[in-house]
Every structure is written in C-alpha cells, then in structure tokens.
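new request in #modeling-help
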Amino acid sequence: MDDTPYLLDGANWDWSRTGSIPQLLVDHLGYTAITVLVGFLIAFPIGLLIGHTGKGSFIAINAGNAGRALPTLGLLSLLVTLMSIGFLPILIALVVLVIPPILTSTYAGLRQVDPDAVDAARGMGMSGLQVLFRVELPIALPVIFGGLRAAVLQVVATATVAAYVAGSGLGRLLVDGLALSDYGRMLAGAVVVALLAIVLDLLLAGVQRLVVSPGITGRGQSRGRGARFVAESGAENPEELVTAGTTKGTS
Amino acid sequence: MNRRNLLGLAMVGSLTAGLVACGSDEDPLATGDSPTGDSTETTAIIVGSANFPESELLAEMYCQVLETAGVEVTRQFNIGAREIYLKALDDGSIDLLPEYNGSLLAYLADGGAPEGVVSPEDVYDALQDVLPEGIETLEQAAAEDKDTLTVSRATATQYNLATLDDLAAVSGDLVAGGGPEFQERYQGLVGLQEVYGIEFKEWRSLDPGGPLTVAALADGTIQVANLFSTDSAIVTNDFVPLEDTKSLFLAENIVPVIRSSKNDQTVTDALNSVSAVLTTDNLTEYLAKVQVDKQSSAAVATEFLTANGLA
Amino acid sequence: MNGISNYLSQNSSIVVDALLQHIVLAVLPLLIGVLVSLPIGYLAVRFGWLYHPILNLSGIVYSIPSLAVFVALPYVLGTRILSPVNIVVALAIYTIALMARTVADGLRSVDPALTDAATGMGYQRVRRLVEVELPLAAPVILAGVRVAAVSNISLVSVGALLGVGGLGALFTRGLQLDYTAPILVGVVLSVALAAVADLLIVLFQRAVTPWSRAGQGV
C-alpha cells in the first residue's frame, strides 16, 4: 500500500478509469449544469412574472424560506425509496434546492428597479413585455446573476449527496472514503469540491462582468426602499434577500 | 432599548435552557454520560450496531436482555461499516456490538484468515489471536449470516451459474455492486480475485446488502450483488446465491464483541443466553419482520426474546 | 397515512429522541457561531482591509462538504469519532462562515449619521457598538441568523452517516428498509423545526427592534 495521498496519486487522475477523480468531476459538473438549467427554466419565468407584475410576491419570498427548510438528504432518500435509484431522484432533489434562490433573486432584482425608469419606458410607448426585457431585466441583471451564482455554488456543494444513493459525482470520494476509512480519499473529495466551487465562482464572476451592462451601477439603494424590504422580508435590501434564499443545503 | 435587548436575550436563553432540560433525561447529546461520550466515565454499557437492519436487530436483542438482567444500557445504533465501528469500539465510543466471527477474523488478520480455517470453531479460535487488547468475544451463536455473491435467476440461466467458479469465466462481462467496503476487503473483491480469479467489468458502490443493491440487481443495473444470506429479498426475488466452493467466505457466526472493562458475569450470562437460542432460521424469520413487515427492531427483538423465554 | 401512523406508534421514542438530538445539535452551534461571528464581523468593519479576506475565507470554508469536516475533526480536536462534539464544532464553523459577512454588512449598513450622533452624546466605542450599532444592524444580522438556523437544521442530518444525525437517522433507516414512513416523518419534522426556528427568530427580531414597525402605519 503506497503512501502517496489519494489526491496526488496519479492513478486516481487517469481519465479512462471508472471512478477516477476526473470522471467523478465531470459527472459532478453534469449534475450541476443540468440542475441549474432545469431550475432556471422553471424559476426564471415565474420570477419574471411575479417581479414584473408585482403580484404573488408572497410566493417569491416564501419560496426561499420553504425551499431551504427542506432537508436535501431527506428529500433524496424519499425520492429514491419511491422511484428507485437513477438520475431522476437526484435531479428532482437538487432542482428543488435550486429553485428558491433563482426565483427569489429574479423577483428581488426586478423589484429594485427604479420605478422612474419603468415610467420613462412606458412613456416612450413600450409595451409591458418590451419594458420587461429591454428595461427591467437589464437593470435587474446584477441581482439575478448574483442569485444564479449563489445557486450554482449551492448545487456544487450539495450535489455530493448523489453518492449517498448510488449516484456518481465527487460525493463518491466522500462516501466511499468513509466506508473504507480511507481519509485520504475523503480529503481529496473535500478539496476538489471546494476548489471546484471557487473556480466556478470566479468563472461566473467573469461572465457577469461581460453580460451585465456597464451602465448599471448595481445595488444603490435609498433608505426608503430599504425600509420596504424590511417590512416584506426581514432583510434590508435585495442582496440580503438573495443570500436569504441560499443555504448550504445538505452537504 | 436596553430592556428590549434583555427581553430578547432572556427569551433565547430560557428557550435554550428549556430545550436542554427537556432533552436531559434522554440525554440526546451524549453517548454515555459525559459530553464527549467517554465510555470509562459511565457504568452504562454503550451498545452499537452497524448500518444494516440485522445488526440493529441483534444489538437491540442484546440491549433488552441486558436491561432485563438489570444492566444499564445506552444505544448508539447505525454507526456505519466495520471500518468505522471498530474504530468506535477501540476508542471507547461504544462497548459492545454484534459481530460476525469470519468477517472480523478476515478484517483483523494480516492477509485475511489463515489457510484452512473455515469451520465455526476454528474461526472462533483463530479470532482470539487477533483481537486487540482489551476487547474480547463471548460465546458465539449457531446463527450465521454470510456474504454471498448473488445473481438474478435470469443471469444464472443465461451464463449457467451455480458456483463462484462458474462466475470466474464470465465476470469480466458483468457489473457487480454492494457496499463500498466490499471493494477492498479480503472477504470481498480482493479475495474473490485471489481465490477464484474473479474480476468484474465494473463495480458500483451501493449499500451493504440493502434495498439499493437489491433494486439494482432486480432491474439489471448490476448483474452480481453482494447480499447477505439471511436477507429475505433473495427468496422473494428468486435470486440465486452462488455457492462458495473454495470457502472464501468463512463461517459467520454471530458473536458479541465487548470491551473487557465493561464485561462481568451478569453481562456474560445475559449475552450468552441470547447466543444459545439464536439460529440461522429464526434469525432469518425475525429479520423478515423488520425488513418486510417494517416492524421496529425493538418490537421484533422483544418478540424474539419472549418467544425464547428470555424476556 | 396508515403506514405513517403505524410507524409512529411503534417508534415514538426513537422519533422523539431523534428530534431532541437534532434540536440540540442545531441550536448549540447556532448560538456559539453567532456569538463568535459578532467580534469577527466587527473586526472586518473596523479594519476594512480584513473584509475581503474574511469574505473569501468564509466562502471557501462554506463549500467544504460537511461529511469531510465531521470525520476530520476528531483528528484535529482529539475527540472520539462518534462524538456529537464533532457535529457541533463543524456546524459552528459553518455558522461563523455564514454570519461573519452578515454581521459586517449589517454594521456597515448603519447610517453613519446615527453613530456620529451617539458619539456626540458621549457614547464610548464599546457602548456605542452594543447599544446603537448592533441594534440598528439587527435586521440584517438576524436575517443571516435565520439562514444559518435553517442551514444547521439541514446539515445535522448528514451526521446520520456516522450514527449521530438527529432526524437524519430516520432518513437512513428508511433507505435501509425501503420504507417511506420514517423518511416522511423525518422530513416533516425537519421542515417544522425550521419553520419554528424561523418564527422564533422573527419574533425575537420584533421584540428587539420595535422601531422597524414604526414606518408602516403612519
């Protein structure tokens, strides 16, 4: 039994070997990407609708609260017991986790758009949809993007649960390492997940810089708007609302 | 403002105090009486179990028979695989748990069990030589629960499989699965390769003889599964356990393993009385009540002990 | 429904024990974490150059999988492998990672005019911090506490993989027996626990910051 730590042992980085770190990494990213995509497709339109019309804000605010209260491990166990192992239970459990931050940040982003800008756009003769996509959305983008980033990080951390139910991904290193008392393996898992989270966050920050219009100064809030948020959600401004929608989940 | 702050703090403080007080009679935090769960600081025997239902059922039987004998017991079930719970036994987090003589021997002995040691008596004797300091075994039961490599009826027919020798020729085409620890155990993939020349195409880490593994075998995700011989799923799914012609999997009598410091005559007598009545058949029968009928292990243990005059 | 009531009637003491253990393992680190994060957040504001390093460190810490921390701590602390102390310390660390930034942001959000006024009235630094800045920062800080509370409640269940997981034990039991009842009970209790914790913190916030409701009526 050689003594090189699991993380540094070349054999574990062999692309062709099943269960090698690169393969698990790719699977992990796959889970993350699909989850965020599906979650986005579900949560973003709803968030747009609620944020643009201002109706149903109750849903947006409490989706954050309710979603983060669900224990991912419990939800996943339940789904697997009901529908057996496979990708679907993992996808559902992770999507449930990712919808609240995307929904909440989309809503919050739209709500903090200066009403004067919306008025001006209407005054120029834009229809509701045009106002939404050409004025509100670009202004809301920093907040929405912030929520998206937080959601991605959350999924990366929580996707390790997939391994508890015979899934792949970096969680495999943790679960197998635990069962085998191979702490080098667990350490490798912890390090790679943490590094992955950091790298993804930096990448997304870069994308944000490219995507968000330079004209948006972002999150300047007057005191008045802050007070309204306190009443609605117990948070002071959209940033807090966004953070409030994200947690570590179960991982 | 000061008053408000104090009010708030008082609310939180009293709430916490209330919760801790509620919890203190069951002592949910501590294993044993001290916050770090140090076994030497309490007279109660901390009984542990591995992470599968049979282990918990047996541990529950031990607990109840000890309690009947007037011994104080704390339960710490569902710890994990042998690799974890032996560490817990070693550092005093637990004092007693049900073990399987063959697996334990293979795990503790360097290079697996010695040659030719296969029968229950031989395994038990060999075990004595490798037990760590301060740990001892009591009398073992006739009941055994062995690891098996099991295939579905369809696979058995397709490849003409009845024994593990038959498996060796086709193993390269098959995917196997079971608990993660099976990969590195001598009584696992390591020994299978050495003794039978079996090497699978792929290994899927699932749960130790649990529903995930059973489901995976049933739906074809894996073709070979590591299941335990007392599992009723083998019969209900018409699975075929392959015969271990070369006796890689040793005798697996159930034996209580205990820290010597916590052992005394009362404890020994109580636990031996359980081992005396435990057979493979009745264990399988009562385990089915937990696995299939979903009765609690506490209730089933009580039933068992009552039926055998030990309650 | 039938299965659940069956399960509950047979296993009530297991469920209650799991719930109590869960509460203790979630609340204790929360309190410790919040208390420790207050000075850290304060330092991040007082010495502005600390803000970003603390932020980054917190982010990194928070992304480390909890199971790895649970298993690593016995080596670092010298505790036993199954000791609940590992869970408490690990969750306290996560709470601090979450809260340090929130405390800093909360303190920063306080209107400098108000702190100036307090200094003008003769408040010394510590007294000003405790009696003026913290209460004003309370809404932001408590929003973070709500998140941390729910996060902890979720994370405790991971300890079930080591046998110390509160309601998580119900999840693993359900998986091992292919039995939905304990899982459902565990999930419902977990969510209920999170809801109660959230409510308590909101009530606490109302009690401690009465002025926040002043603007609503007019």
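bot summary: Chain B touches chain C through 52 residues (CB under 8 Å).
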